[in-house]
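My current task is to audit a protein record that another person submitted. My question to you is simply how this chain folds and whether the tokens agree. This is what I was given:
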Amino acid sequence: MNETTRQRVWFVAVVVLATMNLSQFITNRNLLADTARTQAEIGQLREQIDQSARRLVTNTLHERRQDMIAAGQWLHAFYQSDEGMKRPQGLWMDGHPDFEGIGAWLLDVYLAERFNGASDEAARQTIIDAIRQSDEWRQKHQGG
């Protein structure tokens, strides 16, 4: 093989490698652009899902408003009762509502149970069962 032929072979090899590198570069650039678009689309979908979830929770809370009022009245009476917390003032403590009790039993337990498909009666029973595990209930019901 003479020198000119060798140079041509090397030139063709370099052109082929350069073409392959350019092709790979373009492919990688396009993949990065696709990934950026995909990430943006995922972000938009997440925002749409969050908005839908907020609307759903808001609508569900609105639909459960009367249930929450009735459950609050029931809980107040249960706190007053001998089988409950034996508090004459019910959900009223030291001149203000017992916000901790309201939050714990009505929001954390009752509402969560109802959101998960429990009936009003079953959600109230879950509250009763949980209250009976509390230190305050146990102290008031020792020996009785």
The chain has a mean pLDDT of 90. The longest helix spans residues 3-63. The CA atoms of residues 42 and 48 lie 10 Å apart. The chain has five helices and two strands.
